[in-house]
Amino acid sequence: MSKERAEAIREKVRKGYGKIAERGGSCCRSSTCSGSKPTLLARTVGYSEEELSVLPAGANMGLSCGNPTALAGLKPGEVVLDLGSGGGFDVFIAGRKVGKRGRAIGVDMTPEMLSKARGNIAPYTEQTGLENVEFRLGEIEHLPVADGSVDVVISNCVINLSPDKAQAWQEVARVLKPGGRVAISDLALLRPLPARIVKMVEALVGCIAGAVLVKETERLARAAGLVNIVLTAKPDYAAGMENWNDPVYRKIIRTLPRGTRAAEFITSLSVAASKPRPKGRR
User: Fold this and answer.
1) Is there a contact between 281 and 178 (Cβ–Cβ < 8 Å)?
2) pTM, whole model, 2 decimals?
3) DSSP 3-state assignment of 140?
4) Of 22, 27, 94, 197, whose Cβ has the fewest other Cβ atoms within 10 Å?
5) pLDDT, tens digit, for every residue of 192-207?
6) CA-to-CA distance for 4 and 61, rounded, in angstroms?
7) DSSP labels for 46-68?
8) What is the pLDDT of residues 80-97, one digit of tens each?
9) What are the phi and psi torsion angles at 162 (to 5°)?
10) Domain that holds residue 35
11) Where do the DSSP E strands lie in the chain?
12) How far apart are CA 185 and CA 98, in angstroms?
Protein backbone atom coordinates (compact mmCIF):
# COMPACT_ATOMS: atom_id res chain seq x y z
CA MET A 1 0.00 0.00 0.00
CA SER A 2 1.35 3.43 -0.90
CA LYS A 3 2.01 6.03 1.78
CA GLU A 4 -0.63 8.26 0.22
CA ARG A 5 -3.26 5.50 0.37
CA ALA A 6 -2.32 4.61 3.95
CA GLU A 7 -2.61 8.22 5.08
CA ALA A 8 -5.95 8.58 3.29
CA ILE A 9 -7.29 5.62 5.27
CA ARG A 10 -5.97 7.03 8.55
CA GLU A 11 -7.62 10.35 7.81
CA LYS A 12 -10.99 8.69 7.14
CA VAL A 13 -10.74 6.80 10.42
CA ARG A 14 -9.54 9.90 12.30
CA LYS A 15 -12.45 11.98 11.01
CA GLY A 16 -14.97 9.21 11.63
CA TYR A 17 -13.93 8.67 15.21
CA GLY A 18 -13.57 12.39 15.78
CA LYS A 19 -17.26 12.72 14.96
CA ILE A 20 -18.09 9.85 17.32
CA ALA A 21 -16.18 11.61 20.13
CA GLU A 22 -17.93 14.92 19.50
CA ARG A 23 -21.34 13.27 19.26
CA GLY A 24 -20.87 11.73 22.70
CA GLY A 25 -22.32 8.39 21.64
CA SER A 26 -21.25 5.14 20.08
CA CYS A 27 -20.71 3.97 16.50
CA CYS A 28 -24.48 3.88 16.35
CA ARG A 29 -25.77 6.88 14.45
CA SER A 30 -29.41 6.61 15.44
CA SER A 31 -31.06 7.02 18.83
CA THR A 32 -33.10 3.92 18.04
CA CYS A 33 -30.14 1.57 17.71
CA SER A 34 -30.98 -0.38 20.84
CA GLY A 35 -28.63 -3.20 19.88
CA SER A 36 -25.65 -0.85 19.74
CA LYS A 37 -26.17 1.08 22.96
CA PRO A 38 -22.81 1.19 24.73
CA THR A 39 -23.80 -0.60 27.95
CA LEU A 40 -25.70 -3.36 26.16
CA LEU A 41 -22.84 -3.92 23.73
CA ALA A 42 -20.27 -3.99 26.55
CA ARG A 43 -22.28 -6.62 28.39
CA THR A 44 -22.54 -8.64 25.19
CA VAL A 45 -18.76 -8.76 24.69
CA GLY A 46 -17.98 -9.73 28.27
CA TYR A 47 -17.75 -6.72 30.61
CA SER A 48 -19.20 -7.17 34.10
CA GLU A 49 -21.77 -4.92 35.72
CA GLU A 50 -19.17 -4.01 38.34
CA GLU A 51 -16.68 -2.85 35.70
CA LEU A 52 -19.29 -0.78 33.89
CA SER A 53 -20.84 0.80 36.98
CA VAL A 54 -17.65 2.55 38.11
CA LEU A 55 -16.52 4.00 34.77
CA PRO A 56 -16.31 7.79 34.34
CA ALA A 57 -19.25 9.22 32.41
CA GLY A 58 -18.91 8.84 28.66
CA ALA A 59 -15.85 6.54 28.75
CA ASN A 60 -17.89 3.64 27.34
CA MET A 61 -18.68 4.69 23.78
CA GLY A 62 -19.87 1.35 22.41
CA LEU A 63 -16.69 0.74 20.39
CA SER A 64 -15.78 -2.67 21.84
CA CYS A 65 -15.73 -6.09 20.21
CA GLY A 66 -14.31 -7.93 23.24
CA ASN A 67 -12.92 -7.47 26.74
CA PRO A 68 -9.10 -7.41 26.53
CA THR A 69 -8.66 -6.42 30.19
CA ALA A 70 -10.29 -9.71 31.21
CA LEU A 71 -8.02 -11.65 28.84
CA ALA A 72 -4.90 -9.89 30.09
CA GLY A 73 -4.99 -11.16 33.67
CA LEU A 74 -3.62 -7.82 34.86
CA LYS A 75 -1.67 -7.79 38.13
CA PRO A 76 -0.95 -4.98 40.61
CA GLY A 77 2.16 -3.02 39.69
CA GLU A 78 2.11 -3.79 35.97
CA VAL A 79 2.39 -1.24 33.15
CA VAL A 80 -0.37 -1.74 30.58
CA LEU A 81 -0.69 -0.02 27.20
CA ASP A 82 -3.98 0.31 25.32
CA LEU A 83 -3.70 0.80 21.54
CA GLY A 84 -6.44 3.09 20.20
CA SER A 85 -7.77 3.95 23.65
CA GLY A 86 -10.66 6.15 22.48
CA GLY A 87 -12.58 7.64 25.42
CA GLY A 88 -10.45 5.68 27.91
CA PHE A 89 -12.85 2.78 28.52
CA ASP A 90 -10.27 -0.01 28.92
CA VAL A 91 -7.58 2.27 30.39
CA PHE A 92 -9.79 3.21 33.34
CA ILE A 93 -10.67 -0.44 33.93
CA ALA A 94 -7.01 -1.45 33.66
CA GLY A 95 -5.93 1.32 36.03
CA ARG A 96 -8.02 -0.15 38.83
CA LYS A 97 -6.51 -3.58 38.21
CA VAL A 98 -2.84 -2.52 38.22
CA GLY A 99 -3.33 -0.26 41.22
CA LYS A 100 -1.17 2.40 42.82
CA ARG A 101 2.17 0.87 41.82
CA GLY A 102 1.04 0.21 38.23
CA ARG A 103 0.35 2.42 35.23
CA ALA A 104 -2.25 2.37 32.45
CA ILE A 105 -1.35 4.26 29.27
CA GLY A 106 -3.69 4.94 26.37
CA VAL A 107 -2.57 5.93 22.87
CA ASP A 108 -4.98 7.35 20.29
CA MET A 109 -4.51 9.30 17.06
CA THR A 110 -7.79 11.22 17.30
CA PRO A 111 -7.46 14.52 19.21
CA GLU A 112 -11.17 14.60 20.03
CA MET A 113 -10.95 11.16 21.64
CA LEU A 114 -7.85 12.17 23.55
CA SER A 115 -9.58 15.25 24.94
CA LYS A 116 -12.56 13.16 25.99
CA ALA A 117 -10.35 10.62 27.76
CA ARG A 118 -8.19 13.22 29.49
CA GLY A 119 -11.32 15.00 30.70
CA ASN A 120 -12.25 11.86 32.63
CA ILE A 121 -8.94 11.53 34.49
CA ALA A 122 -10.02 13.86 37.30
CA PRO A 123 -13.32 12.00 38.02
CA TYR A 124 -11.42 8.70 37.90
CA THR A 125 -8.83 9.93 40.39
CA GLU A 126 -11.48 11.39 42.66
CA GLN A 127 -13.38 8.11 42.71
CA THR A 128 -10.40 5.74 43.05
CA GLY A 129 -7.69 7.81 44.71
CA LEU A 130 -5.35 6.60 41.94
CA GLU A 131 -3.12 8.78 39.78
CA ASN A 132 -1.99 6.03 37.44
CA VAL A 133 -3.54 6.71 34.02
CA GLU A 134 -2.40 8.85 31.10
CA PHE A 135 -3.28 9.37 27.45
CA ARG A 136 -0.84 10.09 24.62
CA LEU A 137 -1.45 11.28 21.08
CA GLY A 138 0.01 8.92 18.51
CA GLU A 139 -0.53 6.25 15.88
CA ILE A 140 -0.37 2.58 16.73
CA GLU A 141 2.16 2.09 13.93
CA HIS A 142 4.47 4.63 15.63
CA LEU A 143 3.83 4.35 19.35
CA PRO A 144 5.09 7.16 21.62
CA VAL A 145 6.34 4.54 24.07
CA ALA A 146 9.89 3.43 24.94
CA ASP A 147 11.34 0.07 23.94
CA GLY A 148 10.76 -2.75 26.41
CA SER A 149 8.78 -0.63 28.87
CA VAL A 150 5.37 -2.32 28.95
CA ASP A 151 4.22 -5.50 30.72
CA VAL A 152 0.95 -5.91 28.81
CA VAL A 153 -0.41 -4.55 25.52
CA ILE A 154 -4.18 -4.52 25.12
CA SER A 155 -6.37 -3.23 22.30
CA ASN A 156 -10.07 -3.32 21.54
CA CYS A 157 -11.30 -3.34 17.95
CA VAL A 158 -8.50 -1.09 16.63
CA ILE A 159 -5.72 -2.98 14.83
CA ASN A 160 -8.14 -3.94 12.05
CA LEU A 161 -8.38 -0.21 11.23
CA SER A 162 -4.63 0.14 10.63
CA PRO A 163 -3.46 0.44 7.01
CA ASP A 164 -0.11 -1.10 8.08
CA LYS A 165 -0.93 -3.98 10.41
CA ALA A 166 2.54 -5.51 10.09
CA GLN A 167 4.08 -2.31 11.48
CA ALA A 168 1.47 -2.16 14.24
CA TRP A 169 2.37 -5.68 15.37
CA GLN A 170 6.08 -4.84 15.18
CA GLU A 171 5.41 -1.92 17.51
CA VAL A 172 3.56 -4.19 19.95
CA ALA A 173 6.64 -6.43 20.15
CA ARG A 174 9.01 -3.45 20.43
CA VAL A 175 7.37 -1.85 23.47
CA LEU A 176 6.86 -5.10 25.39
CA LYS A 177 9.31 -6.19 28.04
CA PRO A 178 10.78 -9.67 27.56
CA GLY A 179 8.08 -12.03 28.82
CA GLY A 180 5.44 -9.33 28.32
CA ARG A 181 1.94 -10.30 27.25
CA VAL A 182 -0.55 -9.40 24.54
CA ALA A 183 -4.32 -9.46 25.08
CA ILE A 184 -6.11 -8.05 22.06
CA SER A 185 -9.73 -8.13 20.96
CA ASP A 186 -10.21 -7.38 17.29
CA LEU A 187 -12.39 -8.11 14.31
CA ALA A 188 -11.15 -10.67 11.80
CA LEU A 189 -12.45 -12.40 8.69
CA LEU A 190 -13.43 -16.02 8.30
CA ARG A 191 -13.58 -15.49 4.54
CA PRO A 192 -12.82 -12.48 2.31
CA LEU A 193 -15.40 -9.68 2.22
CA PRO A 194 -16.97 -8.71 -1.11
CA ALA A 195 -14.96 -5.93 -2.77
CA ARG A 196 -17.89 -3.48 -2.65
CA ILE A 197 -18.00 -3.72 1.16
CA VAL A 198 -14.24 -3.19 1.46
CA LYS A 199 -14.65 0.10 -0.42
CA MET A 200 -17.37 1.44 1.88
CA VAL A 201 -16.16 4.19 4.23
CA GLU A 202 -18.92 3.22 6.66
CA ALA A 203 -17.50 -0.28 6.89
CA LEU A 204 -14.01 1.06 7.51
CA VAL A 205 -15.11 3.25 10.41
CA GLY A 206 -17.24 0.36 11.65
CA CYS A 207 -14.07 -1.73 12.01
CA ILE A 208 -14.95 -4.20 9.27
CA ALA A 209 -13.42 -3.29 5.92
CA GLY A 210 -9.89 -3.22 7.34
CA ALA A 211 -10.12 -6.64 8.98
CA VAL A 212 -7.91 -9.46 7.69
CA LEU A 213 -8.30 -13.24 7.76
CA VAL A 214 -7.77 -15.00 11.09
CA LYS A 215 -4.73 -16.84 9.75
CA GLU A 216 -3.23 -13.52 8.57
CA THR A 217 -3.57 -12.11 12.09
CA GLU A 218 -1.60 -15.07 13.42
CA ARG A 219 1.04 -14.68 10.71
CA LEU A 220 1.54 -10.98 11.50
CA ALA A 221 1.89 -11.61 15.23
CA ARG A 222 4.39 -14.41 14.62
CA ALA A 223 6.37 -12.33 12.11
CA ALA A 224 6.72 -9.63 14.77
CA GLY A 225 8.49 -12.17 16.98
CA LEU A 226 5.65 -13.00 19.36
CA VAL A 227 5.17 -16.54 20.65
CA ASN A 228 2.56 -18.62 22.50
CA ILE A 229 -0.09 -17.25 20.14
CA VAL A 230 -3.63 -18.34 20.89
CA LEU A 231 -6.54 -17.16 18.72
CA THR A 232 -10.12 -17.57 19.91
CA ALA A 233 -12.98 -16.73 17.55
CA LYS A 234 -16.16 -15.41 19.16
CA PRO A 235 -18.98 -15.32 16.57
CA ASP A 236 -21.66 -13.83 18.83
CA TYR A 237 -20.59 -10.26 18.02
CA ALA A 238 -21.10 -10.66 14.27
CA ALA A 239 -24.34 -12.58 14.76
CA GLY A 240 -25.62 -9.70 16.90
CA MET A 241 -24.95 -7.21 14.10
CA GLU A 242 -28.02 -8.56 12.33
CA ASN A 243 -30.21 -7.31 15.16
CA TRP A 244 -28.68 -3.85 15.39
CA ASN A 245 -30.54 -0.91 13.89
CA ASP A 246 -27.30 0.99 13.32
CA PRO A 247 -27.56 2.30 9.73
CA VAL A 248 -23.87 1.54 9.11
CA TYR A 249 -24.28 -2.13 9.90
CA ARG A 250 -27.68 -2.39 8.20
CA LYS A 251 -26.09 -1.08 4.99
CA ILE A 252 -23.23 -3.57 5.26
CA ILE A 253 -25.62 -6.47 5.81
CA ARG A 254 -27.74 -5.44 2.81
CA THR A 255 -24.59 -5.46 0.67
CA LEU A 256 -23.62 -9.05 1.52
CA PRO A 257 -24.21 -11.70 -1.17
CA ARG A 258 -27.78 -12.96 -1.22
CA GLY A 259 -28.34 -15.85 1.19
CA THR A 260 -25.29 -15.10 3.38
CA ARG A 261 -25.00 -13.73 6.91
CA ALA A 262 -22.51 -11.40 8.57
CA ALA A 263 -21.34 -14.18 10.90
CA GLU A 264 -20.15 -16.18 7.88
CA PHE A 265 -17.60 -13.46 7.12
CA ILE A 266 -16.78 -11.66 10.37
CA THR A 267 -15.81 -12.75 13.87
CA SER A 268 -14.66 -11.12 17.05
CA LEU A 269 -11.19 -12.52 17.71
CA SER A 270 -9.28 -12.73 20.98
CA VAL A 271 -5.51 -12.77 20.50
CA ALA A 272 -3.22 -13.87 23.34
CA ALA A 273 0.55 -13.94 22.86
CA SER A 274 3.82 -13.10 24.58
CA LYS A 275 7.28 -11.74 23.86
CA PRO A 276 9.99 -14.36 24.35
CA ARG A 277 12.55 -13.97 27.10
CA PRO A 278 16.25 -14.19 26.27
CA LYS A 279 17.53 -17.76 26.38
CA GLY A 280 18.55 -18.84 29.83
CA ARG A 281 16.17 -16.43 31.58
CA ARG A 282 12.81 -17.22 33.09
Assistant:
1) yes
2) 0.83
3) coil
4) 22
5) 888 887 776 666 666 6
6) 30
7) T--HHHHHTSPTT---S--SS-H
8) 999 999 889 899 999 999
9) -70, 135
10) 3-274
11) 79-83, 103-108, 133-137, 150-156, 176-189, 227-234, 266-274
12) 19
